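Sequence design from tokenized structure. All designs in this work follow the same two-part layout: the structure record, then the generated sequence. An example of the structure record is given first.
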């Protein structure tokens, strides 16, 4: 994964193209030293989109999504926070959520509900096995994921350093939330399988519309915001698209203008708060 470490380099280096396609994921090290994956899909069917900006997977995750958690906290809601992540990937956002809330709660895991969606079963499995400290039942496939534990440890360490926490407390918070049924790791989210839930924070970190066109449709955002957003809700994503902005405004969100990460034109941070007469919302 991290190119400097020979144990974790891309496993298909010097391998023929058909081998590469079968393995479907490729590790890269971004400029802040943190790992990301490039996804070629099964049999090379995907665009090969990287999960993060080359300038820094860690820095981008913090830049785009930490303000959403801070904005949410500044609203001082009494309800148990419910947070939804679309696109688990390498778990940067789950570790960020754990670190942020631990740092605000005397280092103890607070009451919280967390729902993560990830379409790839191999990524869900690898992250969960690491969180629960379980040995994989079988050799991970694609084989590139046999290095995933090192990547998660690296991300956890960086995140813990940033929030001045003990590294393993992040994993343990996720483990505790999982065992208490507070953290659920689900398969792909689409406009037809949304459960009627109310999240206070939605971190939308899916691939771009080039790789995931159905997730960037107006109908998808309308369904997401109508069915999954709590009355008080903060929505964040790394991109800014007109259809998304229209959908957010239609659903009562106010958009805060933010520059995108590393020269990207804009990213999205939007907040909806209840009208003054509707004060007992959750
Ligand atoms: C940009 S990456 C997410 C990066 C991630 N947040 C992290 O911290 O590493 C996008 C992720 O969304 C997943 N994905 C694609 N379609 C999805 C869907 N419909 N529902 C949930 N996840 C999806 C991809 O497999 C990929 O892991």
């Amino acid at each position: 994964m991290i190119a400097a470490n020979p144990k974790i380099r891309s496993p298909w280096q010097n391998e023929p193209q058909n081998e590469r396609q079968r393995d479907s994921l490729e590790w890269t090290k971004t400029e802040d030293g943190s790992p990301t994956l490039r996804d070629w899909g099964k049999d090379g069917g995907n665009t090969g989109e990287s999960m993060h900006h080359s300038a820094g997977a860690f820095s981008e995750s913090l830049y785009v999504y930490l303000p959403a958690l801070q904005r949410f906290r500044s609203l001082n809601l009494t309800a148990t926070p419910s947070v939804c992540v679309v696109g688990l990937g390498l778990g940067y956002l789950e570790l960020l959520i754990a670190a942020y809330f631990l740092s605000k709660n005397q280092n103890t895991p607070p009451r919280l509900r967390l729902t993560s969606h990830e379409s790839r079963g191999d990524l869900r499995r690898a992250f969960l096995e690491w969180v629960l400290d379980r040995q994989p039942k079988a050799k991970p496939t694609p084989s590139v994921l046999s290095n995933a534990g090192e990547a998660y440890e690296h991300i956890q360490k960086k995140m813990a350093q940033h929030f001045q926490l003990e590294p393993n407390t992040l994993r343990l918070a996720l483990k505790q939330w999982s065992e208490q049924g507070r953290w659920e790791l689900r398969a792909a989210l689409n406009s037809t399988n949304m459960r009627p839930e109310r999240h206070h924070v939605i971190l939308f970190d899916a691939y771009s519309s080039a790789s995931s066109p159905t997730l960037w449709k107006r109908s998808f955002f309308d369904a997401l915001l109508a069915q999954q957003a709590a009355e008080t809700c903060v929505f964040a994503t790394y991109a800014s698209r007109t259809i998304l902005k229209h959908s957010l405004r239609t659903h009562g969100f106010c958009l805060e203008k933010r520059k995108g990460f590393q020269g990207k034109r804009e990213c999205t941070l939007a907040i909806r708060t209840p009208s003054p007469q509707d004060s007992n919302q959750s």
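Residues 51, 61, 86-87, 89-93, 117-120, 123, 188-190, 205-207, 212, 215 surround S-adenosylmethionine (CB under 6 Å). We note this feature because it recurs in several other targets discussed in the main text.
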